[in-house]
Design a protein that fits this description.
Elements: E1 11-18, E2 25-33, E3 36-40, E4 42-43, E5 46-47, E6 53-56, E7 61-66, E8 75-79, E9 85-89, H1 93-121, H2 134-142, E10 151-155, E11 158-165, H3 166-175, H4 182-194, E12 198-201, H5 202-211, E13 223-226, E14 250-260, E15 267-276, E16 280-284, E17 295-298, E18 303-306, E19 324-328, E20 334-338, H6 342-355
Antiparallel strand pairs: 1-2, 1-9, 2-3, 3-6, 4-5, 7-8, 8-9, 10-11, 11-13, 12-13, 14-15, 14-20, 15-16, 16-17, 18-19, 19-20
Helix pairs in contact: 3-4
């Protein structure tokens, strides 16, 4: 996978994130930097070049395990300094605990390095964001009757729908008295952007975020929109009914992989679980749970082969990232799968071949 260039990457991989307003779960690619977690979505099997949000790690509280979600025992919770909760689900207990351990280490390092300097950066006369419930601010902003107006905007010849300008956000926050001044409103809007509640739209706001300048721009030409997590999506129905016998084997390997659909040929993140005795490979929709598989097949008589990343192999569609391999079942059904890294691809191929 292509790594983030904004700083030293400490860890990266798929996690399933719970939405803030619409409480659905979506698979995202997370990149951990020394002071923040960035997350991205996938388009056609390839990571989107623009980040969908971030979780600042300064003074972050980590709860692991977090066991309040039924049928989701692999969740960890991050509470940011501004009191926003982020719920992230890993593919296994080992992965969950590793993420939690590394995040905790990063938080402790930031606290040790920051000390009095971090306290000095906070202006006691300014807005106290630790006392602001950002989720409530977002709900008010998103309200269909009294929230901010979403319009169509044109920037550098491109048209963007359902968005608003930076200055419109600042105007609205001051008008509804969520901020006392434009300076306070910019600080509050920056926190909304920093927590992933808002996203950049168009060239100007994206470039401002990338260059590390003023994070949120009080500008009529800088465009923003609501996070994609506010868009409701229907649940995916299970493709196959599977017997209890198929799920009775010992779990050999678990992990997030990208699978190409058989009908639409689109790529989706799926949680794959490899079992032995009997040898089956099942895949789950991670936006739901790991109880009811979306599909699965016996590995008896299967052929597992690595695919060359140079060019697009026959039968593969879309804008692929790479690290491809193929499984051909005994009934001649072809499954095309992408692993996040070359090493994970080799590990999966080795584990699958041991069961065939």
């Amino acid at each position: 996978m292509e790594t983030e260039r904004q700083g030293a990457v400490l860890r990266e991989g798929f996690l399933v994130k719970r939405g803030h307003v619409v409480p659905n779960w979506k698979a995202r690619w997370f990149v951990m930097l020394p002071d923040k977690l960035l997350y991205f979505k996938y388009e056609g099997g390839k990571r989107d070049s623009s980040q969908r949000g971030q979780v600042p790690l300064e003074d972050c509280e980590v709860t692991c395990p977090y066991l309040e979600y039924e049928n989701r025992p692999l969740v960890l919770k991050l509470r940011t300094r501004t009191g926003v909760d982020h719920f992230l689900e890993a593919c296994s207990r080992e992965a969950r605990d590793e993420w939690a351990e590394q995040i905790t280490a990063a938080v402790n390092k930031l606290q040790a390095e920051g000390g009095e300097a971090a306290a000095g950066r906070r202006d006691p006369s300014g807005p106290h964001l630790q006392d602001v419930n950002l989720s409530k601010v977002l709900e008010s902003m998103y309200d269909v009757h009294n929230g901010i107006n979403m319009n169509q905007h044109v920037e550098q010849g491109s048209t963007y729908s359902n968005c608003f300008s930076g200055s419109a956000v600042v105007d609205w926050l001051v008008f509804v008295q969520l901020a006392l001044s434009r300076v306070d409103a910019v600080t509050l809007a920056s926190a909304l952007l920093d927590e992933g509640f808002l996203r950049t739209v168009g060239v100007k706001s994206v470039e401002a975020l990338r260059t590390g300048g003023e994070q949120f721009m009080d500008d009529s030409t800088a465009l923003y929109g609501f996070s994609d997590s506010l868009k409701k999506r229907g649940l995916v129905r299970a493709e196959t009914s599977l017997s209890a016998v198929e799920l009775s084997g010992e779990v050999v390997k678990r992990g997030f992989l990208l699978k190409q659909g058989h009908r639409r040929k689109n790529w989706k993140v799926r949680l794959f679980v490899l079992r032995s005795e009997p040898a089956f490979l099942h895949y789950y929709d991670p936006t739901r749970d790991d109880i009811s598989p979306a599909g699965g097949f016996s590995l008896r008589g299967c052929l597992v082969s690595s695919l060359n990343d140079n060019g697009v192999p026959l039968g593969v569609k879309g804008n692929i990232q790479g690290n491809l391999f193929k499984i051909i079942t005994q009934s001649d059904t072809h499954y095309f799968i992408q692993a996040p890294t070359q090493q994970e691809k080799l590990d999966w191929i080795g584990a699958l071949r041991e069961q065939t």
